[in-house]
Amino acid sequence: MPLVKFPDGSEKEFNEGVSLYEISKSISNSLTKSAVAARVNGSLKDLSVQIDKDCSVQIVTKHEDAGLETIRHSFAHLVGHAVKQLYPDAQMAIGPTIKDGFYYDIDMPESIGESDLVKIESKVRELVRQNYDVVREVVTADKARSVFEARRETYKIEIVDEIADDEIIALYHHQEYTDMCRGPHVPNTKFLRHFKLTKLAGAYWRGDSNNKMLQRIYGTAWNSREELDAYLERIAEAEKRDHRKLGKQLGLFHFQEEAPGMVFWHERGWSLFREVENYIREVCYSGYQEVHTPQVLDRSLWEKSGHWDKFREMIFETKSENREYAVKPMNCPGHVQIFNNELHSYKDLPIKIAEFGVVHRNEASGTLHGLLRARRFTQDDAHIFCEESELQGEVSELIDLTFKVYKDFGFENISVALSLRPEKRVGSDALWEKSEDALKLALDSKKLDYLIQPGEGAFYGPKIEFSLKDSLERIWQCGTIQVDFSMPERLGASFVNSESQKQTPVMIHRAIVGSMERFIGIIIEEYAGKMPVWLAPVQVVVCGVTSKHDKYVEEVGKSIKKSGIKVSTDLRNEKIGFKIRDHTLQKVPYLLVVGDREMEDSSVSVRRRGVSDVQTMSLDEFQKTVVGMIESRSVN
Fold it and tell me: Are strands 194-204 and 213-222 parallel, antiparallel or unpaired?
């Protein structure tokens, strides 16, 4: 007679072997109509699961986050069902959920395209309308293997063979289609209504480029047509803002196969990069020693620091004269070498070392995504060497600085997380306790809400992570503040304390924007290429109505340039309407048009990006206005 406790504190006794579905029905029929899963002692379960012991139960409806996750997971299986009906020889690999949706990796007998995606989506809709029950069956490994051998599903057999002996194996039957999963899944396809298959991609089996390339079908699912439509609108807007498209359109940068994951900055793009760099140097590196460390360092240094064991697969290696080297994936060991190059007293601390550090990481080719995921990138990296007593003050200042930087670039919605010790780490538990407590105290003193992330810290220390939300509600994790008691000791860093004894400093790792390339990609997408004036590679373009105004165009351009504004003059033998359209597409903040009247009055006709009204101003007044916006770094 299992006793079931509910979230409201009530309890109910059931006959032995009651299902979660029956428990839900005993509460109310209306609840059961929207129930897709349940939590048993905090763990998500299918409604078909039988309860025979005392436990706590919370019914999960389709309207909750966990319910929507269950719906999306079930849609992945439904895609598998549709694909197997259309392509009987297809072999199913894995079909997990992801943010806002799901995907299924499939070994297809033939390459499929967008027209096939439409066909698969149509078949999914046909299956949805059948409102069939999804049946869960717990089986032995031998039974699962025999089922998938009969279905010639080699990927599923490989997964079965890797499942631990004590782990439950569940098959899910969708009519004639059978899949395998931990679950939970919806009890009936009536819960699967509002979806869209969004795109196709290639994906190596298990993410290993040595394995076969599979075809990945992406999809999204929601609880209502309104939610689905709103999401699809956001996706369409995101595609318009794709930094890779805008980078090409605006002549900022490009990528090519000869240097995969490594950006070629063009003049205008490099101008944008340098503006961000100049901002960071002015705002974030004040009081720091700005340095530059080697790109290639002996393997032994990376072994001492712990990076070799932790990041071996991501390190580019090279050899010379029988010595092994690593192209640096991090800047911290190099900064420790600069600290170690001199003898330091406690009176010298804190010592702050900063670098626009270029690093290389051998990311898998399938994960590369323009500026947002690259193999070569620049970090606004800095390290603070201090005494333990100085730790709170330094971390507190860094928190304030991080919020300021994001605000200056136009991001106000910032979330914070505290990532604690991972399973694989260096350093004693006592040191981890101290460093975690230090970060908690700094966050609590600021009265900040923050998420605790167990096991997500760096291998050498816990970290505060800052994530910003953009105008499309996307979350970007950027900055980190990390406390490290271990690496300075591993690399022999020390200072002479007030008692004339050598002591190991605490090392604070900090990056505010993180990858400069990634941050610039985020900025480009946030502003849809319409950069704030201070960041714009070309801030003003001057055009003449006809060629007879060319001399005045050049005079205006020279005057504006002297005031420090990035200006371009358009003397092409084209109609003024063509020039205006062209520079509008280039998203230039200010377009000045000059004709007879402007020449006579020593004025300019100002077209402001995104504003239909044209304003006539004196050249001096215009220059003062733009210079003021640049100097204030206005994002409006």
Answer: antiparallel
Neighbours of 36 (CB within 10 A): 27
DSSP 114-171: HHHHHHHHHHHHHHHTT-PBEEEEEE-HHHHHHHHHHTT-HHHHHHHHHS-TTS-EEE
pLDDT reported for residue 310: 80
Respond yes or no: is residue 105 known to be catalytic: no
* Residue-wise DSSP of 572-618: -SS-HHHHHHHHHHTT-SEEEEE-HHHHHHTEEEEEETT---EEEEE
**Which residue type is seen at 88?**
P
How far is it, in rounded angstroms, from Cα 12 to Cα 555? 87
CA distances from 459 to 88, 298, 299, 434 (A): 46, 21, 18, 15
For 589-611, give one letter per residue: b (16+ CB within 10 A) or e: bbbbbbbeebbeeebbbbbebee
Residue 222 — left, alpha, or beta (φ > 0 → left; ψ -120 to 50 → alpha)? beta
Residue ranges in the chain modelled with pLDDT below 50: none
Look up 509 and say whether it is catalytic: yes
Indicate which residue of 194, 241, 509, 579 is catalytic. Answer: 509
State the catalytic residue, choosing from 463, 510, 583, 587. 463
Q: What is the pLDDT of residue 428?
A: 84
Three-state DSSP state, 497: coil
Q: Crossing angle, helix 619-632 and helix 550-562, to 10 degrees?
A: 40
Q: Enter the tokens of residue 378.
A: 């620049």
DSSP helix/strand/coil, 479: strand
Q: What is the rounded distance in angstroms from the CA atom of residue 538 to the CA atom of residue 267? A: 10
379 part of the active site: yes
Bond from prior residue into 109 cis (ω within 30 degrees of 0):
no
Query: How would you class 17 by CB atoms within 10 Å of its CB: exposed for 0-12, middle for 13-18, buried for 19 or more?
Result: exposed
Domains of the chain: 3-61 (3.10.20.30), 66-225 (3.30.980.10), 253-293+328-526 (3.30.930.10), 540-632 (3.40.50.800)
Asked whether the beta carbons of 348 and 494 are under 8 A apart, the reply is: no
Q: What is the pLDDT of residue 306?
A: 85
pTM of the model: 0.83
**Number of helical (H) and strand (E) elements in the chain, helices listed first:** 20, 35
Q: Residue 575 catalytic? A: no
CA–CA–CA angle 75, 76, 80 (5° rounding)? 110
| Residue 478 is among the residues annotated as catalytic for this protein | no
Q: Which residues contact 323 (CB under 8 A, 6 or more apart)?
A: 298, 299
Please give the Cα distance from 10 to 463 (Å, whole number): 41
Contact 121, 197 (CB under 8 A): yes
Please state, in angstroms and as integers, the Cα–Cα distance from residue 257 to each residue in 262, 264, 372, 512, 516, following that order.
9, 11, 17, 30, 22
Q: What one-letter code names the amino acid at 547?
A: S
> Catalytic annotation on 463?
yes
Whether residue 284 lies in the annotated active site: no
Catalytic residue (choose from 381, 470, 484, 570): 381
